[in-house]
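Thread: quick sanity check before group meeting

JM: Hey all, I'm pulling together slides for Thursday and realized we never actually wrote out the predicted structure for the chain we discussed last week. Dropping the sequence here so it's in one place. If anyone has concerns about the input, flag it before I start.
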Amino acid sequence: MSQYKNLTDIEIFEKIVKYDSKALEELYLRYSPILYSLIKKIVKDLNTSEKILLNVFTTVWEKIDLFSFKTGNVYTWLITLTRNMAVDYKQNKRTGNFEKNVKTKDFYIVPLLCDNIDSLSLDSALKVKAEISEALDNLTEAQKYVLLLSFYEGLTLDQISEKLNIPVSTVRSKVTVALNTLKENLLGG
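JM (edit): ok, ran it. Output follows.
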């Protein structure tokens, strides 16, 4: 498997498109620790987290044709797919609605990234992890909370509004300010 270890993420995806199972194994070895950590933060249950992780890689295998090789952004696509699957599970558990058809899964779960998103590799993401943590730590508790509700809980602006008992426009403003502050913190401003 050493020949796969030296491949870039996009080269791994190109092999997965051709149904190369060894490439999927390498992708799993490369990404499962970070994806599993993300799932555990959202779902909390270890057994469920393991099932979702396996489902992520099954989805990669089955839905690789929905990945845009034009963007080449494997890391962001995998993180977003994983987050979407974990949040979807959590929301369905909350509502009891577990029925999904293939088109719904393709639309709501499998990410469609914009072409203008900068490509980010796993290695570069790990290198900036400390800066991202520090930027998040510099947010106010209220800013952290609205981002947590949005990203990890997967709540819509309406749902956050209802939960916090504040107008949707206020929630939108709080999320926007939190994201802008996070961006400024990351850029050192």
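AS: nice. DSSP finds eleven helices and no strands in the chain. The domain at 1-120 is CATH 1.10.1740.10 (Rna Polymerase Sigma Factor; Chain: A).
JM: adding both to the slides.
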